[in-house]
Task: structure prediction
Amino acid sequence: MHKQTVLALSFVLGIGFAGCQQGVDYGPTGTVSGKLTMEGKPLLPQTQVVFMHAEKGYAAFGNTDSAGAYKIISWNDGNLPIGKYQVMIQAPAGSDPDSVSAEQMLEPQMDGIKEAEFPFKYRQTSTSGLSYEVKAGENSIDIDLTK
Result:
């Protein structure tokens, strides 16, 4: 019985939060695209660039292509409220975890499966040192990571 109550409450809250998103005026918005590189060279395709609004916690991401180009599209059709955003970078998802040994998963600088191409500090907004202002309209933000 308790499990059913929790599920029902979760469902109602989920609908409530989804309903709150419709028709919300976030004020002026901007789009973000650019190029992500590591010392001038593109990272693996599908590397994720994550923008998080420093004050309101809005988070959105986009994935790189083989040349390192990215476009933030995951939130509000890519229209981000203007303001200061902290940025973190996430390595592409690896292959099937069942095909990797425990020793391989415990190796330093591993992202589940594949060795990271960039320092771990870029994987968290609190340590990445990456911060950008999103202004109304189109924003071109190139990010070049260093080792």
Summary: Helices lie at 2-21, 102-106, 125-128.
